[in-house]
Amino acid sequence: MKKLLLLMLLSSLIISCKIAINKNPDTKETTSEYGTQEDQMKYYFTATGNEPFWALKMGTENIEFTSLISGKEKLIFPATEAIRAMDANVKMYKVSNETSSATISIQQLECQNSMSGAISPYKVSIEIKNNSELELKKLDGCGNYNTDYRLHDIWVLEELNGFKVFLTDFQKELPRIEINAAENKFMGYGGCNAISGSIFYEKDVLRFSKVISTMMACAPGNKEDQFIKALQNTTTYSFGDNRLTLSNPSGKLLVFRKVD
Q1: Distance between CA atoms of residues 150 and 223, nearest Å
Q2: What is the pLDDT of residues 144-172, one digit of tens each?
Q3: Of 83, 113, 147, 259, whose CB has the highest number of CB atoms within 10 Å?
Q4: pLDDT band at residue 139, thresholds of 50, 70 and 90?
């Protein structure tokens, strides 16, 4: 009996400890070089630099700059549209508030963090100054667009080039894609062959590239080629009613339905 009571007491203590750990308010959210997962949903572009350390977060509502230039300062600027430079791979943003002004340049160029060695697809340069000073501070670092987390799902094709699709248009089942937003990759089924590739993402821009497929011969009339061509011609996207619509300047190309 004493052994049974001791066992029950020990079990109770273990359960209590687990509950206490799960409720620990100091548990931290997973972070990366560019901030927390919450940051990556709120801000479409994030960047960091060293010597001195600085961080940049760009969202649709505001642009947040933090640095250790003079202590720890945090500046909030209103969001603004990009100014296209002569080089198509460079975007420039001119921002200001009551105390400071800055010019932010984002160049599509491979960039290596000077401390961690991590490779990013964008080089970032910032010229910033306090409105009460004449001298500009010039900073360099690396950045990354945060792919829209809503894309991260499995999508089954409903429309192709403006027309509803049917099983008879393909082989056995409808085309589908599974997007991994964290790794900027996708995989799926083209209607005859397995397909996979990469996605390129910027703010409101989505492209499917490096598409490869297995080499199975398709039945006559199979529309896999049309599906893959439409996927590769995509430049933008939108959501609505559990649907993902892929388009380009010519119009709507593909409509997918979200599946669980």
Answers
A1: 27
A2: 999 999 999 999 999 999 999 999 999 88
A3: 147
A4: very high
Whether 21 shows a pLDDT value over 50: the answer reads no
Are the C-beta atoms of residues 175 and 191 closer than 8 Å to each other? yes
Residue 20, number of CB atoms within 10 A of its CB: 9
Residues 6+ apart with CB under 8 A from 81: 93
Buried b (16+ CB within 10 A) or exposed e, 33-69: ebbeeebbebbbbbbbbeeeebbbbbbeebbbbbbee
pLDDT at 208 over 90: yes
Q: Which of 60, 65, 87 is nearest to 76 (CA)?
A: 65
Query: Residue 223 and residue 91: Cα distance in Å, rounded?
Result: 38
pLDDT for 227 equals: 98
